[in-house]
Amino acid sequence: xxxxxEEIIGKAYDARLMRRLLAYARPYATGFALAFxxxxxxxxxxxxxxxxxxxxxxxxxSGPPQxxxxxxxxRVPDAVPARVQVTWNEQVLVAAHYLPDRFDTDQPGIxxxxxxxxxxxxxxxxxxxAAQVGRLAxxxxxxxxxxxxLNYGQNILLHHLGxxxxxxxxGDLFSHLQRMDLAFFDRNPVGRLVTRLxxxxxNLSHMYSHVLVSLFKDVLMLVGIVVVMFRLNAxxxxxxxxxxxxxxxxxxxxxxxxxxxxxxxxxxxARINAELNExxxxxxxxxxxxxxxxxYTEFEATNKEYYRxxxxxxxxxxxxxxxxxxxxxxxxxxxxxxxxxxxxxxxxPFGLVYAFINYVDMFFGPINAxxxxxxxxxxxxxxxxxxxxxxxxxxxxxxAPDAVSLEKVEGRIExxxxxxxxxxxxWVLRDVSFTIEPGETVAFVGATxxxxxxxxxxxxxxxxxxRGEILLDGVNVKRLxxxxxxxxxxxxxxxxxxxxxxxxxxxxxxxxEISDERIAEVARLVNADYFIRRLPNGYDExxxxxxxxxxxxxxxxxxxxxxxxxxxxxLVLDEATSNIDTETEMLIQxxxxxxxxxxxxxxVAHRLSTVQHADKIIVLHKxxxxxxxxxxxxxxxxxxxxxxxxxxxxxxxxxxASGASGPRITSLG
Amino acid sequence: MKRFKHLRGFLxxxxxxxxxxxxxxxxxxxxxxxxPRLLANVTDSLAYGQLTPAGLKRHVFLLLGLASAIAxxxxxxxxxxxxxxxxxDFCLRNKLFAHLEKLxxxxxxxxxxxxxxxxxTNDIPAVRQAMGQGLMxxxxxxxxxxxxxxxxxxTVPLKLAAVSLLPFPFLAAGTALLSRLAGIRHRRVHEAFAxxxxxxxxxxxxxRVVKSFAQERAEITRFVATARENVAENMGLTRVWGLMxxxxxxxxxxxxxxxxxxxGAMIIRGxxxxxxxxxxxxxxxxxTWPMIAMGWVIxxxxxxxxxxDRLNAILDEVPEVRDExxxxxxxxxxxxxxxxxLTFRYAPDLPPALDGVSFHLRPGEILAVVGRTGCxxxxxxGILTRxxxxxxxxxxxxxIDILDISLHSLRSHIGLAPQEAFLFSTSIAHxxxxxxxxxxxxxxxxxxxxxxxxxxxxxxxxxxxTVVGERGVTLSGGQRQRVCIARALIRNPAILLLDDxxxxxDTQTEARILAQLRExxxxxxxxxxxxxxSAVKHADHIIxxxxxxxxxQGTHESLLAAGGLYAxxxxxxxxxxxxxxxx
Lengths: 669, 583
Description:
Chain A is α/β, with parallel strands linked by helices. Helices cover 59% and strands 12% of the residues of chain A. Chain A has three domains: 3-56 and 133-391, ABC transporter type 1, transmembrane domain (ABC transporter transmembrane region fold, Up-down Bundle); 64-122, no CATH class; 411-482 and 614-669, Rossmann fold (3-Layer(aba) Sandwich), CATH 3.40.50. Chain A has helices at 3-6, 15-25, 29-61, 119-179, 182-187, 190-232, 234-241, 244-281, 283-288, 292-344, 350-372, 374-391, 452-459, 482-487, 503-508, 516-525, 529-534, 552-565, 582-596, 608-612, 631-637, 640-654; strands spanning 67-71, 85-88, 91-95, 111-114, 413-421, 427-436, 441-445, 467-472, 475-476, 489-493, 501-502, 542-543, 570-574, 600-604, 616-621, 624-629. In chain B, a hairpin with a 2-residue loop joins strand 4 and strand 5.
């Protein structure tokens, strides 16, 4: 159960984790820079809107000015924008309030007129205003179209970057897992590792695509709005910001509360999942003991805690979200009051206040959005902590830096005083020594737990031995490249593991060097061809649900084909024939000579019929080698092997209906 | 509406929360609509110089009053609506659990624990979101659109309003189209994610094969290819979904430009006031987000419905094993067990797991069942505890067909120590009493003592309070099995079933424990199965099962004399023991 590790909940923001997460973004620096530029552009355009409105209201929508100043075109000061100039009586007429304060209207050739007294001047201003408003509207439409394109582009780009980063992390994590030793997989439940690869990385993807994107944008917007506000009017900008300390205090409080609430929810959720899992697994016991009511009460209590935690979290947001929005309106009210007084006092144009009202609205949007992302950020941090923890777990069985390649494997295997334990001093193999010559067939015999399967794991170097050494063709397996070592060995296990794909994929196992012809050939050699061709799609027949549609015998034949396809120097049959029907057994017996010809073959079998023909039989008992010799030699010895043989032999004698499967040593121990 | 049948009780009880929540939500919306009007008033009076400082103050206070009311309303609807959704989550989870408790063993044989867990971890939250956020957004979006339109049309001259709304039909059509597309692509993203999970699961489960064939690199290629597909599907969704917000912004900006162009001209011509213009732009801004929200609503509700449908599939499952109509209670059981020609298959197309088995066990007798793994021992135990239904007229307890006895009363007379020693991750004491508070500490200790596990337990630092499992101590297989026996003994049952429940201890220990239990077994009907004959040879009656058939029966002596399967197994086991005992 992964309950404990799921409960690791770090901070919502952890600089060390963030640095590592950002390191994954580094290869995409150009992309992020481009996205940044696009965002700037979008934010810029969004900021333009209130400004355009301000221009429209102050310059063009407040009606013709009270006073106009008429002059010759060349005398108009540069500071007066062209859009507020109108032509009147072959002169340029400018609204008085656009002229600089030091502009002297008492010069000759400059007339100050009361616009209301001149209908034609009024009309000229109206026409000019209408034209200018139209122009601004067109500008806005153009800007909107550009913003649309940029916004969409930026959206796609940032998602693309985020997805690719997560792809990299997934790939790294998966590759890392492939390097881990079997002891690691013995320790870690499958579900936990799958969660790391899928859900935890998915949380990161949410962070890169949703949080990072909007974080960028929101922060940029905030900065942009502040800059624009100060440039427009520092006084109003300061008034708008007076509520910021309130927001700051509320945010700090929110962060503490939200983190505690999140932690409580996650803990409760982990507990409820663990309990549910346990109860589903043990449901029959609950039912047989009539404890349904009791277990229900227990579950309800856990569920209640989860409910309460959820309500607690909801409360945090229920208080904080309306609060920040209230503070936003408070800022608005302050602005209206302060700005209103200034407008009333004639010290400020109304459009300026109006623009600020818009900006304040825009200012609080990103602040609210930031708090909304808080949960995603927390989840991503917790997930990244778990992911990095896994990535930082070193692989114990790895290629040595000076690992050597084997060009051609002869198949000579030697164990020299090997001691091995899965944990501590719990020796599974004690001082085991033997030699298998190339091309020999050797059988390991012994009760369950004698150490047979461990020997096979060690030949494959799934684990490293504590003492002694294992040599392949005279080279210590620790010095061989793992891939070379394992490529030279093919193992057929009792439980055949089939992958999703078709029959062909399951023989080839992703090795594209194995041609379709070769697959058909090996299938023929192991007598699997017959049943495969009778499948509706032959070699293309899909394998579903781990091959549950195939019989145990058919699966075993596929495993033999798989082993042969890789043309190994060493063939290992680990109880490979102990779970199949007579018919398949006969097919395998028939194919066996072809399979083992020219290979070192190691058999761990429970059928003495297979074992009998081995060149050498090694008898293991409680981790030690007790006897080595041929069938006849060992029988003559009247030792362990003799007893084992008698066990089966006598059973046969008794003529007991033991099914078609024949005598087995499986039942030992 | 059939979809909601399992939620009907909840809805009836908590509808008031939704009603109040929606009321608060609507109140907030209405108040929010007043703000632009208020700002328009201020604007107009300011622009036309009609505002006094006192009037300004009044407006500001009004604004603050509105803001407070809105904040309160927002707080309340969150409590009511999100609270109700949380309640729904709570109720659904309880309901799911209660229903799972009713489903028989066969259901759990066919449904993986992981899949059942997924319903609790994915589907229930999806329903919760639809019933909380989804519902809220839905009500809000509909009402805000309607109300904003209403306010716009009422307060703003029709011509201007009409012009400003021009882009919105396009936006609505676009949103509808995009959310339909997004729904499809969302499903594809989910499927791609499921494939990724499967691929990871398969690789890790088969890591031994991968490693032994040195296929790590091919596996990485395959995994990355699947992860890439996942990226492609995600990008496919983004290409659709990513249009939504820019599109809404575009519509709003174009609306704005239209208002500016046409409205501006109207102001200049004196047809409308500057205030009308300001109000119009504010309303326009308010129309944008319901359009975006609608897209989300569709998404959230779609997922909620899908989750609810999957939950309904479980909740609609009728348990195969349940009290038959007219089932009777057995107030006290004598412990007479009769099995008459019992043939049982796990599924109609499977070979029989028990084939024509008959025996009669009188109260107080001890029956031993022996046979190889898979011979049908555990199936027999499963039927006696009615985890599976036998055919009618084949199994009788105290002369009554087992199918006619209420499950609860049948099981209250049975103590079972199962083959798989399953314990819960609570304290050992709690595991033995199975949470039944009527058992005192001394009774628990006595049961542990009879099961020969008391000394082991007391050797733990926390004794009987030691927690079992990952968070506590790891018990050895033998200790677990003995705790399971204590759990069966403490119930003082009329019928005791020991299903190969000492396989993890050695032969001598098993024999010793069973010998100790002989006193306890007196006066109880016992069925003991074991793969070791030495453990059960003292039974009154022994039956030998092979491939579901009863092949031999008798006493230890008579069976040995018969020289059949039993005698053979016994001899082999003696030999094995001897072999095993060698150092």
